[in-house]
């Protein structure tokens, strides 16, 4: 096929490598001064333009990455969090409402419906911005969410008719949520987090190419001044001095702006993105544990599996290496109080859970349910509510930090690209103005 | 002229379509989306069939004969198991909270009600003279024997089939309700017998004797197991299995929850249900059998049966007591 031959043809028509230049010593010996000046001036201009262009390109690339963190990946990650949280909360709320008996409390019903509204809204927005792999996962959620809600409504109807079949439907619904919907949306969240983290890393790395070109340009400029000083016997060449000053300014500005920007991004990653991941996992573990706690009671004596899952999830949440402990270690000073309060509530929850289990295991299901669904300030629902609110609060702060640091990082780079274009032109002008009179002397 | 106009407009449309097509980004195809049917937790399809345990030969119905006259309520013979329970103040009974008509929660009151709950209350009445001196403990099928062996309950009334294998570990009262394994199907599916279920899926609870009976049918249905019979009904409603097969009294409870299903088929097993009692409490076995004798004789059994089951299972006489 001709298309396969094409590259070979291209290779044959490729321009031959440029003829190798002689060593500087031989050039100097063979060449007269004006020609040498020409060559040096041209070289400096080319180097200056190269360094300037590379720096401008690097700055623009970073700005684009930071812009993406602030306006695309960041928000998608927040959508993924919303989707995940809304689904997990719907699951926990449905189970708790079911437990409350025949006609569930209006407040819990509303909360469940709000969760679904939030989930579908987040799903729609996330689907629009997602890549192929994430879109496939989101489609699993989109396909199965109506099935899930159908099962929950069936469970409610049977519950109202007073037949035990309702509990079986609720268990099936929860299994669908915990085994299919939540894992799919967790993967979407993880991949958006990875993307944000990757962009933050890429935009805060050390710019090797730019640094190298800048150093070479600076060295060449210095060498040119030594050369001109020797040949013309004038110590200072104003044009070249001006070019050096311009280069110094460009270097200082770039270094300062890029360092500040990188620092902001690193802060955004450490105290923002990484903390968001940990806190989101803490929220997931606590919501799923809550759902399983209720399901243990819904199963009425057959809930050993759910209790086991609860134990695993609560350990993930509150263990010594659990999500809350990690969040506490990761979080900056100001966030710790909130996370610590979440940890205290989680400990209180475990205590109350122990009491509920003791009652239920002792055969007193009624008392267990009464304790599990009581709504007083010191009761399980309120304790869990405060735990959840503390995690959400900390998450909001961390999410906002990702945003703010991205804005600050973008702010540090503002005007740098335009400034560098002007400075590059200034450098070129300095070189040209510095060499023109010297070359003119030999006419 | 007209031809020229038509050609011109066609050209325009083509151009417009070409532009539009080239402009739009590739969108994921959504027309092939399908929804997978979910399953309850812990479904085994096909189910693992529990091996038939080598059980000693016996008459599983034969229990211990009551001795003398039944002691009056509140006056249990000193040193007896019943006296210990009376001293404790409550009779602890292992029951099912999820078996409609047998043991379930009344949606209005939240109270446990059902045929087996009433049986338990009669036992409490016989000991204390008060049917409310009973503590119900919801247990799973698999928990029944361990709970009795560990004395965590005084008795189990939970459609527990009397088998020679189980007699090795626990004692049973005389039969309090007869049951046979049959089929629950969707009305109108045309399934009448196990013979109609060749290669079709039939559901029962994990590790139950029902699973074994399903697997042993000559028509070779595929056994599917779940954690509870309710999950089987969910699968039947969702067309994921074609029948549920367990004892008919439990099937009646399932059919009562869904009027589009019916209990059919020739019984394929004989499964007498007895009250499970810790092996060593022989005095308790004799006492419970005495209470059952009285309930059969004075119409209490029939009253309770009629209250919960007659409408579903038809009129029935109390099972005849068999003694060793």
Automatic annotation (TrEMBL), chain A:
Name of the protein in its database record: Secreted protein
Naturally occurring in which organism (per UniProt): Actinoplanes lobatus
Domain of life where this protein originates: Bacteria
Region (Disordered): 1-28
TM region positions: 36-59, 206-228, 240-260, 415-435
Keywords on record: Membrane, Transmembrane, Transmembrane helix
UniProtKB/TrEMBL annotation, chain B:
Cited Pfam families: SBP_bac_3 (PF00497)
GO BP terms, alphabetized: amino acid transport
GO CC annotations on file: extracellular region; outer membrane-bounded periplasmic space
Biased composition (Low complexity): 45-57
TM region(s), chain numbering: none
Record's signal peptide: 1-21
Annotated spans, Disordered: 41-62
Record bears the keyword Signal: yes
Solute-binding protein family 3/N-terminal domain boundaries: 90-312
Keywords on record: Signal, Transport
InterPro entries linked to this entry: Bact_solute-bind_prot3, Solute-binding_3/MltF_N
UniProt similarity note: Belongs to the bacterial solute-binding protein 3 family.
Name of the protein described by the UniProt record: Polar amino acid transport system substrate-binding protein
